[in-house]
Design brief:
The protein is mostly beta strands. The chain contains no helices and 39 strands. It has a five-stranded mixed sheet, with no helix packed on it. Strands 2-15-14-13-12 form a five-stranded mixed sheet, with no helix packed on it. Strands 32-39-38-34-36 form a five-stranded mixed sheet, with no helix packed on it. A hairpin with a 2-residue loop joins strand 25 (290-296) and strand 26 (299-306). The protein is globular, with a radius of gyration of 23 Å.
Length: 430
């Protein structure tokens, strides 16, 4: 991969001054069906291969405009090459890997059609924002941050620029940074910024080391400060109900705490669901509810919070150490990075079924297959891997397909939705 270094113009100020919607074409999905590998709790585990011989530590996740999931990973060790990787995962599990010159942190798909990464250049000691094309070409923009600060999480603001938080190791200083797609950056120094989100009101929201939430406009002016109390902030996300949700740990009793903040600054401490050791990450899920990764001994569970009823829902036991990063997948399911398992885990909400799973039909005769899917309303498409043995009607609005025997033999009929979920049925013609 070719690396390009760009010295961006750094503009410093003192004090205050979603899913791709493309529908896959017929035949575009491999019949190596993704959902057939579900475990008993509804998870699929995708291992990430080692980086330069070191265990891979997957972190941030993002989806591009071609229905591909990307994960930023770094080596678990002092790799002399100094960087990490971006790994692109297709819905059939196939992976493409692109080396990075920097150790990656946040990851966002940009409005310019590229992946954007917040990172750390070990060779220079500089904090960097990297632009990476979808074929892996990297361009680095050094940020020239004050000593002791690095770019943290990366989000896309309502102004189509990228924003990041920064906090020193002591939690005493930091700030908020902005970089546009041309690489021009601005840094607004201040107190420690531990979490950051783009709010439903088009403002930038961030939290400090654990007491306050701040509202800032996209010109860099802090509009308001809202006290929350003694908490350790882990994540901040906008919900579908026009508010923000904060994952925190209460400093007094070390218990998990979910906190809701309206855009007018009304803070409500919801608390925890009474189980587990802490809340790590938040996602506004594909079903419109809040999903939280919650630590529990050696695993990380996934907890649903219903934004309509304002109540906790199901808790799903996850694979070991899942949930340091959460993202909505291109398949309408929830994806979670599992760094200590070197994997990316997928919790399948949109479970597909096909009835029957095996079908026998005579030459010249027809029989039916019926597809169903939870939390889905749309069309399905079916493909026969060997149409010389059996054909199948291509499209259906109600999930019913007609299979017709052509010649003796066996074939696979794959049925998939518009979001790369798919199931298969074995068809025998005699």
């Amino acid at each position: 991969m070719r690396r390009i270094i760009v010295l961006a113009i750094a503009l410093f100020a003192i004090g205050c001054s979603s899913h791709p919607s493309a529908v896959p074409a017929p035949g575009e999905i491999s019949p190596a069906i993704f959902q057939k590998h579900l475990d008993k709790n509804g998870w699929v585990v995708t291992p990430i291969d080692p980086i330069d011989g070191y265990q891979a530590l997957p972190g941030s996740l993002a989806v591009d405009n071609q229905h591909k999931m990307w994960v930023a990973a770094e080596p678990n060790g002092n790799d002399p090459k100094g960087g990490g990787e971006l790994v692109k995962i297709l819905m059939n599990g196939h992976q493409s890997r692109y080396p990075l010159s920097v150790l990656p942190g946040g990851l966002v798909f940009g409005p310019d059609g590229n992946m954007w990464v917040s990172g750390f250049d070990k060779s220079s000691g500089a904090s960097v924002i990297a632009r990476v094309t979808l074929n892996g070409q990297e361009t680095d923009y050094p940020l020239n941050l004050p000593t002791g600060l690095q770019a943290g999480s990366l989000i896309l603001g309502s102004d189509d620029a990228f924003w990041f938080n920064s906090c020193n190791n002591a939690g005493t200083s930091g700030g908020i940074g902005r970089i546009d797609t041309s690489g021009i950056s601005t840094f607004y120094p201040g107190s420690c910024a531990s979490v950051i989100a783009s709010g439903p009101d088009s403002n930038i929201w961030f939290g400090d080391a654990g007491q306050n939430i701040y509202k800032m406009n996209t010109q860099g002016t802090v509009l308001a400060t809202y006290p929350v109390g003694e908490q350790f902030f882990n994540d901040l996300k906008a919900g579908t109900d026009g508010t923000l949700y904060l994952a925190a740990i209460d400093n007094f009793n070390n218990s998990p705490d979910l906190i809701r903040v309206t855009t007018a600054g009304v803070v409500t401490k919801i608390g925890g669901d009474g189980y587990g050791d802490g809340y790590l990450s938040i996602l506004s899920g594909p079903d419109g509810n809040i999903w939280i990764s919650g630590a529990h001994s050696a695993s990380s569970d996934l907890i649903q919070y219903n934004v309509t009823s304002q109540s906790f829902g199901q808790r799903v036991r996850g694979p070991k150490h899942a949930g340091s990063g959460l993202a909505n997948g291109p398949d309408g399911n929830i994806w979670a990075s599992a760094p200590y398992s070197s994997a990316v885990d997928t919790f399948v909400i949109q479970v597909m079924t096909v009835t029957p799973k095996t079908l026998t039909v005579s030459v010249g005769k027809s029989a039916n297959l019926t597809a169903g899917e939870a939390n889905y309303s749309g069309t399905w498409t079916a493909v026969s891997t060997k149409p010389s043995i059996a054909t199948v009607t291509a499209n259906s609005n109600n999930g019913k397909f007609t299979v017709k025997g052509v010649s003796a033999g066996t074939t696979i009929v794959a049925v998939y939705d518009s979001m790369y979920n798919s199931v298969e049925a074995k068809v025998t013609v005699h």
